[in-house]
Amino acid sequence: MSVVEPGAVSSDLVGRVKRILLTPSPEWERIDTEPATVKGLYVGYVCILAAIPAVAGLVGSLVFGHGIPGLATIRPSPVGAIIGAVVGYGLSLLSVFLLSLIIDALAPSFDGQKNSLQAFKVAAYSGTAGWVAGIFSLFPPLAIIGGLLGLYGLYLLYTGLPRVMKAPKEKAIGYTAVTVICAIVLYVVVGMITGAVVGAAAIGGGLAASKVVGADTGSVTLGGQTYDVGQMDAAAKKMEAAAASIEAGKDVPVTSPDVLKGLLPAATSGFNRTSLEASSGGAGGMGMSVARGDYERDGKRFTLAVTDLGALGGMTAMASAMNAQSTSETDTGYEKTSTAGGQLTTEKWDRETKSGGYTVVVGNRFSIEANGDADSIDDLKRAVASVDAGKLKSLAR
Q1: Which of 20, 274, 358, 384 is deepest in the core (most CB within 10 A)?
Q2: Distance between alpha carbon 76 and the CA centroid of its chain, in Å?
């Protein structure tokens, strides 16, 4: 039985934390052969450690506020701070599960062995440094130190992947690099659904009692929200295909920027195009291509861009699978994220400055984005709609 399995007589959470941080290599060897379950790792380890930055951040924001002490400090309302802490906690739990899907999907591309439980071990234990370093959030000005210390988790990932996922040591760097890239995009996308979880927390009483259910049966439930593991796994498989090409020394193909450039209209919503450019680039096979044009009318100007996200597009599929929804308002405007028909959309608008942005992700691969000044958000929406989404969907297949 695992040392973190509920009810284990040999339970040694503090010892496990010390060993994984101070002597990771021998500890990963022990973790590799240690019996465990996803539920046990969640309840006996992840849920406990993930609470450190959540609680520390909550206390720090209420006592010290955010900003520069003595100059400008903003203290959130107690209700807002509590909801924010609970949301961050719930998302950290979900992120561990999603990262494990990515690690498992990438394993064959680096001559590793697919094993969902072993992948979850890597995702769970490699997060130890970041969670422990979260204690610095008690005093917000020191939070950056916690963030830097949390980077030690990259080393934990590097030492754990070859051992636990049975990948050759010579491929550990590549395996780690691709996993880190995917993780960064994952956390950005997960951040987009924060508002959706906030809404669920407010309506359903919060995520304090959230639990992961059905991880082995095709779905995962957090705070009353159920997510389709099959859809998330399909997104992870896109990463697996991309990783296979990268490992073989091939660039993941992206659409020619000239093709994207041809999709930008000469005029839209009464705005005339004044410039047009296109480019592509990337590193380590993780490429992207983009075409953008500037549009002007009566002193107002916005940019319309079409981007092929390439290998990173799989992460937008995860956001779509999670039915991302959120809304926030200020005195002069709003920001909103929504998912309809499997299509992720974000928009923001400031009524005072008459500026904002509108983005639609097509085929879980291409983003169409309009940003800048206009008479209303409708001008930006019409600009995005003027790009042939049907053509992009066909290119995404």
Answers
A1: 358
A2: 25
Confidence (pLDDT) at 252: 59
User: Above 50 in pLDDT, residue 46?
Assistant: yes
E strand or H helix at 363, and its extent? none
**What separation in angstroms does the CA of 28 have from each of 32, 199, 241, 363?**
6, 39, 27, 39
Q: Under 8 Å CB-to-CB from 239, ≥6 apart: which residues?
A: 102, 105, 106, 178, 182, 311, 314, 315
- β-bridge mates for residue 288, sequence order: 281
Q: Which pLDDT does position 122 carry in this prediction?
A: 93
pTM: 0.50
Q: What is the mean pLDDT of the chain?
A: 74
Task: Provide the 8-state DSSP code for 387.
Answer: S
Q: What Cα–Cα distance (Å) separates residue 226 from each residue in 58, 94, 202, 318, 341?
A: 26, 11, 17, 13, 17
**Spatial distance between the Cα atoms of 174 and 107, rounded to a whole number of angstroms:** 11
CA dihedral 304, 306, 312, 318 (to 10 degrees): 80
Rounded to the nearest 10 degrees, what angle do helices 229-247 and 172-192 cross at? 140
